[in-house]
Structures are given as structure tokens and as C-alpha cells.
């Protein structure tokens, strides 16, 4: 919500302008009425308005002088001059002084609405929406533009609103989450995932309604911890994100809150699973995985545990490097398996198949074989690809395929796919106007934050920063 200040030495004129239109409908709120230039300058310093509507003829400090003295206070503050027909020459001079628009008295509702719509478009394009600014801050808290983004959020009251206490809620699914009304910030963080920042006071009633009737089209709703500062938001959002995917463990849609992440029993079982795999003891591996499955069935584990169990077990089975991963996000995990029980069943099958057979022998025509793999990956990098799929398609051990990538292209399979995706993302950022989330999806990433972190890791810039550098 942008802030507007109305300045006129005739109070009834200021009041009539305030009452003329639904300011909030156009993204503004009137934060003050000033009876003259002196009072207006004080209000500007105190309230930091985005737009000042000012009369021309006023005692002590007229409208033109107010613009001249007010401009240096905040470089991006807008001024709109209001005047009568007889003062048209003054209005023209005001435009030369840097006013954004002028409106004639008596006020015309359509004219004021048009000015507000134009100003909102300008401010949105210049500063971004609350959601865009917060995403930039969360992507890169140390960015050189951080203070400018914070100032824009501060002027629109977003930071004060956050300080009153907000709760992040993440919804996984294609439908929109029914909300309780009131101010909110909506962040699109995945192809089928949305985060909502809600005032803490509104969450209990909303939770009750969601628990009574799970909204159709949603698989999971996760509720994070209260945050009172934008810097606390990242962790709170990650908590809500993890909680939202708990439906994968529960085996059914639902509303989920924070859970204990440390489970010593799982740590012990994972140590045992690694030893069993090293000993190539298939029955022992299956038994250990069954015991881990029982922890999932009892509701003692989370989606984060499921992700760890899958990636670590596959890594140990195929002797992959720590940097090599089979999956990169919770979203990919829940698309690969129906639930945690299905994941455990697949791990048992993979372990049995791998431990029964000897390690694959490298073919004599390794370069020709690798060329076929490389062409396949290059043609299909935008969709979900895994070493397991390549293993099944080319009849090779995943570990051997991983070794071929390191030898032939000098990086892991995961790194090679990431480089291809980021390279295409750079092209899309340079030549198009798709949103960051849309570009992430086009190159194969359905999670906004994972994509932006990876992009910065490989390019040194966030996607937003990269786009701003284009000619």
C-alpha cells in the first residue's frame, strides 16, 4: 500500500479530495492532511509519503516552493499539483519543477482515479510489489540494493506490518488457499506451491477452518513460526515449506505444523544401513529400511528425513560423490513417489537389484556410449532426469555414469544439468519478460528458492540482478 499526503490550506478541500475516491482500491492510503507548506514539510519527514497532492496557492510556502524543497527529502517521492483554471500557468511550471501530474479544481473522480492508477503503475515498475521486494531480499540479503528495497517496503508500511507479527503459511497444490481477509503478502515459490504471509492474529481462525474442511486442490498446508522481522522470514518460510510436504509422510492431505527434526533412532538406522550396504548384505539392508519405514508410518519423521533417507541410500548404493544428487527438492521427491511407504519400497527394490549383481564393467566403446548419454541429457535437461533413469536406459551402473561425466566433461552429472539449465535461464532473462518463477519452470526447476540459489552460485548474481544488467 502506497502512502499519500494531501496539502491544502482550505481543510474542506483536502477532506473532499480524501473522500472522493476509494484510495485503497488503487493501492494507496491517505496518511495525513496538511494545512500548508510548513506543516506539509514536517509531515513529509515524519510519514515519508510516496505521493503528495498539493495546492498551488498557499500562504508562507506555496505549492511550487513545496515541490522544490520537498524533492531533496526523498528522491522518489511524487508530487501532484491541484489547481483551478486560473492557475494553469502555475501548473505548467510545477510540471517543469518535477511534478508527476496536475488535477483541476473542482475535482473530477475519474480524473483522480486515472492519476492514481498511473502513479501506482510507475511505483510498481520502479520498486516492485511487496512480494517482489521480499523475494529479492530473501534471495540475496547482502545485495547492494538491499537498502533501496528496504526503504520501499518501509515507505509502504510492510516492515511495520511484519514487526506486528506475521506467520508464513505454505500451500502445496494447484488451488488457491482460502484466506481470512486483511493484509497479506503472497509469494509464488513453486510451480504448485504458494507462500502466504498472514497477520498472526488472523491465523488461528483460518487454521480452524482449514482443519474442518481441507481446501480442494491442495495436498498440504504448512504453518511456520511467527516472524517479527524480514530477516527471520527465511527460516520461518523454510519451516512452513517443510511442514507443507508432511502429507508425503502422512499419506494423506492435511494441515501440518512444526515438528522435531532430530530423531536419534533414524540416525542409528542410517549408520547401520550404510554398513549393511558396504557389506553387500541385502537382507540386512531390507530389514533396516523396513525399520525406517516404520518410523515414517508412526509419524515420527518429516519430509526432510525422507529426502535424506532417499539421497543418502542411493548415494551409498552406487558409490556417488557427496556433490552428486539424485533429487534436488521436496517437490521432485513427491512427484517421484506417492508417499514415504512407496519410497521405502523402491529403495528396497533398488538395493536388492544392485547388491545381487556385480558392478557393471566399463564397455570398450566408452566414448561412443557416453556420447549417446550426453546427447540424451542435452536434449532432455529441462525435464526431471536422474542417474537412475540413465542407468535403466543405457544399462549401466549409476556410479559408472557419474564417473564418465567427471572424466569426459569435467563435472558431475548434476553439475552438467545445472549448467545447461542456468545457461538457458540466462538467455530467457536477456530476451524475454517472463517472471523468475516462469523461467525456473521452463528450464526444469519448480522451486523458486532452489533455482535462485543455484543461479547465483553459478553466475555470481541473482536472476533479478542479472536481468537488470541487460541492455
UniProtKB/TrEMBL annotation:
Protein known as: Response regulator
One Pfam family it belongs to: Response_reg
Keywords: Cytoplasm, DNA-binding, Phosphoprotein, Transcription, Transcription regulation, Two-component regulatory system
Domain Response regulatory residues, every copy: 3-120
Signal peptide annotation: none
Subcellular location: Cytoplasm
PANTHER family: HISTIDINE KINASE-RELATED (PTHR42713), TRANSCRIPTIONAL REGULATORY PROTEIN HPTR (PTHR42713:SF3)
Domain HTH araC/xylS-type: 371-469
PTM annotation (4-aspartylphosphate): residues: 55
SMART domains for the chain: HTH_ARAC, REC
Segments traversing the membrane: none
UniProt-listed Gene3D superfamilies: 3.40.50.2300, Homeodomain-like (1.10.10.60)
Amino acid at each position: 500500500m502506497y502512502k499519500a499526503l494531501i496539502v491544502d490550506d482550505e481543510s474542506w478541500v483536502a477532506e473532499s479530495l480524501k473522500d472522493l475516491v476509494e484510495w485503497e482500491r488503487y493501492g494507496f492510503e491517505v496518511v495525513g492532511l496538511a494545512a500548508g507548506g510548513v506543516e506539509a514539510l514536517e509531515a513529509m519527514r515524519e510519514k515519508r509519503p510516496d505521493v503528495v497532492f498539493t495546492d498551488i496557492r498557499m500562504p508562507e510556502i506555496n505549492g511550487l516552493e513545496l515541490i522544490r524543497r520537498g524533492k531533496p527529502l526523498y528522491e522518489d517521492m511524487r508530487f501532484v499539483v491541484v489547481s483551478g483554471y486560473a492557475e494553469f500557468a502555475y501548473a505548467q511550471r510545477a510540471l517543469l519543477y518535477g511534478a508527476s501530474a496536475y488535477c483541476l479544481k473542482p475535482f473530477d473522480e475519474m480524473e483522480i482515479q486515472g492519476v492514481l492508477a498511473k502513479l501506482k503503475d510507475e511505483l510498481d515498475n520502479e520498486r516492485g510489489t511487496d512480494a517482489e521486494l521480499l523475494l529479492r531480499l530473501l534471495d540475496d540479503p547482502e545485495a547492494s540494493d538491499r537498502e533501496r528495497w528496504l526503504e520501499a517496503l518501509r515507505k509502504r508500511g510492510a516492515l511495520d506490518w511484519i514487526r506486528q507479527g506475521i506467520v508464513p503459511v505454505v500451500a502445496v497444490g494447484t488451488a488457491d488457499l482460502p484466506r481470512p481477509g486483511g493484509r497479506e503478502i503472497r509469494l509464488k515459490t513453486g510451480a504448485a506451491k504458494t507462500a502466504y504471509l498472514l497477520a498472526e492474529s488472523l491465523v488461528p481462525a483460518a487454521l480452524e477452518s482449514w482443519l474442518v474442511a481441507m481446501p480442494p486442490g491442495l495436498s498440504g498446508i504448512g504453518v511456520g513460526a511467527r516472524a517479527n522481522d524480514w530477516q527471520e522470514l527465511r527460516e520461518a518460510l523454510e519451516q512452513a515449506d517443510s511442514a507443507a510436504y508432511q502429507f508425503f509422510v502422512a499419506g494423506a492431505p492435511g494441515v501440518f505444523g512444526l515438528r522435531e527434526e532430530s530423531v536419534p533412532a533414524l540416525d542409528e538406522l542410517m549408520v547401520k544401513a550404510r554398513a549393511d550396504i558396504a557389506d553387500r548384505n541385502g537382507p540386512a539392508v531390507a530389514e533396516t529400511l523396513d525399520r525406517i519405514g516404520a518410523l515414517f508410518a508412526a509419524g515420527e519423521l518429516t519430509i526432510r528425513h525422507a529426502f535424506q533417507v532417499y539421497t543418502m541410500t542411493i548415494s551409498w548404493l552406487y558409490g556417488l560423490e557427496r556433490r552428486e544428487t539424485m533429487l534436488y527438492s521436496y517437490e521432485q521427491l513427491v512427484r517421484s513417489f506417492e508417499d514415504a511407504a512407496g519410497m521405502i519400497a523402491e529403495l528396497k527394490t533398488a538395493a536388492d537389484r544392485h547388491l545381487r549383481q556385480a558392478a557393471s564393467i566399463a564397455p570398450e566403446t566408452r566414448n561412443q556410449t557416453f556420447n549417446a548419454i550426453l546427447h540424451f541429457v542435452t536434449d532432455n535437461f529441462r525435464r526431471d532426469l536422474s542417474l537412475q533413469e540413465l542407468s535403466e536406459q543405457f544399462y549401466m551402473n549409476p556410479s559408472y555414469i557419474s564417473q564418465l561425466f567427471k572424466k569426459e566433461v569435467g563435472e558431475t552429472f548434476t553439475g552438467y544439468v545445472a549448467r545447461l539449465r542456468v545457461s538457458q535461464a540466462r538467455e530467457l532473462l536477456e530476451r524475454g519478460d517472463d517472471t523468475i518463477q516462469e523461467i525456473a519452470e521452463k528450464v526444469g526447476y519448480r522451486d523458486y528458492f532452489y533455482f535462485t540459489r543455484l543461479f547465483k552460485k553459478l553466475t555470481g548474481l541473482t536472476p533479478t540482478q542479472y536481468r537488470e544488467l541487460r541492455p
